[in-house]
Amino acid sequence: MAAGNEALVTVVIVAYNGASRLDRCLDAVADQELAQQGRVACWVVDNASADGSADVVRRRTDGARLIASPRNLGFAGGNNLALRQVTSPFVVLLNDDAVPEPGWLTQLLQPFSQERVGAVTGKLLLQPRFLALPVQTRGTDRLGVTVVERDGKDVTAELVWDPVLAGPQDRRAHWCQPDLDLLVPLPLGVVGSLDRPVRVRLHVMSEQPAVVRIAGQEHAVGPAGQVVDVVLPVGTVTVDVVNSAGTVLTVDGYAADRGFGRVDDGSYDAPEEVFGGCGASLALRTAALHEVGLFDDDWFLYYEDVDLCWRLRRGGWTIRYVPAAVARHEHSASVGTGSDLHAFHDARNRLLTLVKNASLPVVVRTVGRYPLTTAAEAVRHLRTGQPERRAVTLRLRVLASFLRLLPRVVGRRRTSQKGATVPRAAVEAWIGRR
Question: What is the pTM of this model?
Answer without folding.
Answer: 0.90
